Amino acid sequence: MSFNTPRSNRVWLYVTLTLVLLACLWAGWRDFDPWTPQDQIRENIRSSIRLVIQVLVQYVIPGAIIIFLGKEAIAKFRDKKRVF
Prior knowledge:
- The longest helix has about 35 residues, at about 50-84.
- It contains 3 helices and no strands.
- By secondary structure, the protein is an all-alpha fold.
């Protein structure tokens, strides 16, 4: 099997996206503590740029990856169903 086939590229895309998803979830939630006082949280987030990056890493990127992988899985399931 050659590494330049379209199927191989799709597999690497899924593996890469899964790793990015795990990294985003880890980076976004590793220091989450529900008992941290609100004032301390506000002190830790000092700039709007950091907040935007945090939201992207915590919600937007993982959400987009989950939606993409879900759509791909549904499409693959529907294609398999048509074959039989």
